[in-house]
Amino acid sequence: MASTAAGDGSRPGVEGRRPHDPRVVGDAPARLRADAAHNRRALLDAASATFAEEGMDASIARIAARAGIGKGTVFRHFATKQHLVVAIFCDRLDRLADLGAELSTAPDPAAALSEFMTVGVEQQASDRSFCQAATGDTRNDPAVRAASVRLAEVAETLTARARDAGSIRADVTGQDVVLLLGAACQAAAPVAATAPELWRRYLALIFDGLRPQAAHPLPHPAPTRTQLADEAAAAGSAG
Amino acid sequence: MASTAAGDGSRPGVEGRRPHDPRVVGDAPARLRADAAHNRRALLDAASATFAEEGMDASIARIAARAGIGKGTVFRHFATKQHLVVAIFCDRLDRLADLGAELSTAPDPAAALSEFMTVGVEQQASDRSFCQAATGDTRNDPAVRAASVRLAEVAETLTARARDAGSIRADVTGQDVVLLLGAACQAAAPVAATAPELWRRYLALIFDGLRPQAAHPLPHPAPTRTQLADEAAAAGSAG
DNA sequence: AGAGAAGCGGACCGCGCGGTCAGGTTATGA
DNA sequence: TCATAACCTGACCGCGCGGTCCGCTTCTCT
């Protein structure tokens, strides 16, 4: 799984300490040797699966073993465990955004939004690391923030269409929709082992809350589109 | 904070390996010396606050320092870090259940349910460890399971009253309500630093989904009252 | 084919964690 | 007051983690 091109594992500030460090994209070739490309993909697949099963606490050693490569090779491709996490998390976000972009021209706006949310929750429900990453330091990474913003924009488009069609209450934003994905997932999480599809129930319940018929005034304004960036700034200045 | 009598930190199977280990309640005195009782309370308060701020990854050393006691003292009261976590988590659950029990005789059932959920989410929103504990191994502990069952029963009472009053759709159970507390909390978590009260918005949205006006058929049956126990069994057999 | 860059692997390091223990300290009850 | 059980402390242990390093292998290009 997760065999598409995921992330690059490079940060601008990181300078190679050995001749031609592949983590530096720079203006250099940035061309991967065939075996290196193969290992990289195996690593990303193994990391994706392992993080999904064990959460972000999964050790690099286990991931490397699963990918059939040495531990050192992992750090050749990603300077830090965090960089690896970021690459995979961004990939997840991007894929969901891609789906949303496709759905944004679908004939039935309400069905499109529902489909978008269903896939989004399903993705999270089968991935223990997703919620952890959404709440932890990972969120502050610039690449993650960029992907989050894009996802929010796509969600906003979908939401606006459904709203204009009268399928969704007027006071709900795309940001709300994105954040509610994690909500449905979290509700079902405590009993995920015995009822792996329970998230469908809570997604449906939440979706009912989005309908105009249910609308009661909301006691708090929606988060702004760039709230995640503000969040990072707050986290940086604080603790 | 959290100064009420919280947990006992003892497991039946644990046998003391030193003369009169206080972690064993047994049929023995189980009477704490004055200074020991004081330290224990300081420990529980410090652990509660630290876990809330830093999550369950907070180290025992930090907690001990905050409580002004030695690390060894922590393990004198709680055989394991997990036991300490369980004690605190059970305390949280019990307190919420207590509130629910009080509210179960309030005149307005819908307002009572709303109040119950508001306090429940508020409690979690200010406690980083709560969601982690609700999803991790902690949930399998027998004491936690007992507290969870009690909480579910109280929630069921509140829900039934609101349902009978026609304030809540018929296909929603107390278990649903409990699980949805975590949902509202999780939705707001990613932007908790910049919008600490945002959970109110999502709780209101979810509550709107509980109203009869919004009711659409739910695609998955509600979890049973003892689902958490089954969950533990499944986790035990699997792994 | 051969030179040399690119890539690989796994022993190794320092760290901080949960948990232990021997020996000093203090509350308690007679 | 005093004997003793209960209690506290902090140095200590083993472990597994993220991350480093360098000798060796493998691909690539001419």
Automatic annotation (TrEMBL), chains A, B:
A molecular-function term among this protein's GO annotations: transcription cis-regulatory region binding
Region (Disordered): 1-25, 216-239
UniProt superkingdom: Bacteria
Annotated keywords: DNA-binding, Transcription, Transcription regulation
DNA bind region: 59-78
Residues in HTH tetR-type domain copies: 37-96
InterPro entries recorded: DNA-bd_HTH_TetR-type_CS, Homeodomain-like_sf, HTH-type_TetR-like_transc_reg, HTH_TetR, Tet_transcr_reg_TetR-rel_C_sf, TetR_SbtR-like_C
Bias (Basic and acidic residues): 14-25
Record protein name field: TetR family transcriptional regulator
